[in-house]
Amino acid sequence: xxxxxxxxxxxxxxxxxxxxxxxxxxxxxxxxxxxxxxxxxxxxxxxxxxxxxxxxxxxxxxxxxxxxxxxxxxxxxxxxxxxxxxxxxxxxxxxxxxxxxxxxxxxxxxxxxxxxxxxxxxxxxxxxxxxxxxxxxxxxxxxxxxxxxxxxxxxxxxxxxxxxxxxxxxxxxxxxxxxxxxxxxxxxxxxxxxxxxxxxxxxxxxxxxxxxxxxxxxxxxxxxxxxxxxxxxxxxxxxxxxxxxxxxxxxxxxxxxxxxxxxxxxxxxxxxxxxxxxxxxxxxxxxxxxxxxxxxxxxxxxxxxxxxxxxxxxxx
Length: 316
Fold this sequence. Notes:
- This protein is an alpha/beta fold.
- The chain has helices at 3-9, 125-128, 143-149, 175-184, 197-205, 211-222, 243-257, 268-271, 286-303; strands spanning 118-123, 154-159, 190-194, 227-230, 263-266, 314-315.
């Protein structure tokens, strides 16, 4: 595929206002800021990861688009943070305190919960909606509260619209460098990785960095620590973000399970209901984001239980 077409296809999957969250302990807050989005550079173009455009050791706020229109090769997406419907233009909302306002237990997980006391969650726009006040006005439904309900005490969430493991938008840190920065800043614990939607789209569009190589890069950063990877689903019938492209990513994750005994896959694709998607077929309604946060936290318990051991790679 010609470089120009690749660049067009990779442009601005939900690029806009920021959604990066700092580590939170028992009394720590969260942070959010805003930055403009732009087109992502194709892998290996010199503006991709490691080129010097973004310092690997620095975590910057990325884009936090929840529900803008999906870009195509001929029409870049224009989005607004926090919206659960395409094109509403709703401004970014402050999300401070989301990680400390857990409230009563809601996750519905019996028993002692998860063995993961510290969790780093790295995601794209499908994670941004789980920490967004406009999408989830009730803090008890948001991702940090759901993690706390299953026994996680230290939570670091970094979600950025359009993020992949390799490519990055201007001012954004890709998934690989985000994970490396977390380790360099002292994180030790379990990883939840909700990336792949953009990665597999980029591969389908012609990136020379394959699906398995992207997974292997993150697993090398985890260095044997527990990893739960959330697989992907769309309702798109064609193009780089098609459901066929998503299935290719999910199949590669399954192959990776044979290489990494510390890897578990939460099979989101098998439980995500079509009614939870908005019209773009990629992002979710408020009900969808609430269900996604609840189910991810519950899957973490089954993947890495406080008592006993999980032997199944796929968690449903």
